[in-house]
Amino acid sequence: MINVFQPTLGAEELEAVSEVFAANWLGHGPRTKEFEALFAEHLGVSPDHTIFINAATAGLFLATELLGLGPGDEVVLPSVSFVAAANAVAATGARPVFCDVDPRTLNPTPAHVESALTARTKAVLLLHYGGLPGEVAAIAELCRSRGVPLIEDAACAVASGADGTSCGTFGDLGVWSFDAMKVLVTGDGGMLYVRDAELARKARRLAYHGLDNKATGFAKAKVSDRWWDLEVREFGRRLIGNDLTAAIGTVQLRRLPAFVARRQEISRLYDRLLAGTEGVVLPPALPDGHHSTHYFYWVQMDPAIRDQVAADLLARGIYTTFRYPPLHKVPAYGSGPLDLPGVEAASETTLLLPLHQGLDDSEVRTVADELRKAVEHRLAAAGH
């Protein structure tokens, strides 16, 4: 099976894990701090503002908590987004308000966001679809002008940016995912960025039970007569990462530029192989000054054949998918009927092709060849 997503792991990661085993300290420690610092350098921010956590989902939930969201509040987010984003909002008692997206980029425009803002809007939660930055700078400026915090779900955008600024750092809070299907993987894990220094310190406390100092009892014994006493200011949970996964992440971060370069090569190869294919629309070009992680490669086609083409490819050993199904249609969020034509068009026409750095050129050619055959066959059967 040629998979849509697949991590790249090897001897370097195993060696890093073995070093953690040899040190006999698996929990939050020096490897975690090193990974936070290196990731902050990768983003171009201070390490005091980055926190390695056990999942990006945990970061989204923590972000909504840091903003004090609750009943009566509204949060604007694109309907084409991952379920964790809407869950993080709804769990506070606030209401997710879903906005439309551009049907080609699957990212919202400033106009889409602005049309969903109300007097009750307490935050905007933006996704960078497939690693495309989108119009994030303009949306961030819109949020600042309205006094509304911006949360960036940069799960797809670990190496994306626009005009010298990394995705995830345009707004007030940013979250990245390192789960097993991402580009940089730690198995499970994520990173949280908090722009405000005091809020970043609060985030660290909340990510470790609300404790003011998460130093070990042994370390505190050197500076305190009663090192077992607790300092709890808020009611937190345990969301922190650990040295075992951080060691993997540190190696993966070092390899990230090569991963992204290979993904870009694959995307360009798809562009060449599929150019001019009847019934297949290729992804939009990146604007000048933007760079992408190339997390997704998607094509679009007549909705009458999209699902059939996906089934044909699966039968030929090629796994494709669509992400993310429209959230405004999920009954649990209670959004009711909404007129979101861009979301509707994108969700009915878009198909993600395999894209990961482990693909070789022959596999890419196989995908492209089988896609062309499937589209041609289904168009003919439909009388097009």
From TrEMBL:
Key words, A-Z: Aminotransferase, Pyridoxal phosphate, Transferase
SUPFAM superfamilies xref list: PLP-dependent transferases
GO function terms (MF aspect): pyridoxal phosphate binding; transaminase activity
Essential cofactor(s): pyridoxal 5'-phosphate
Active site feature: K182
Sites bearing N6-(pyridoxal phosphate)lysine, chain numbering: K182
Origin: domain of life: Bacteria
A GO biological process held by the record: polysaccharide biosynthetic process
Signal peptide: none
Family statement: Belongs to the DegT/DnrJ/EryC1 family. L-glutamine:2-deoxy-scyllo-inosose/scyllo-inosose aminotransferase subfamily.
Protein name: DegT/DnrJ/EryC1/StrS family aminotransferase
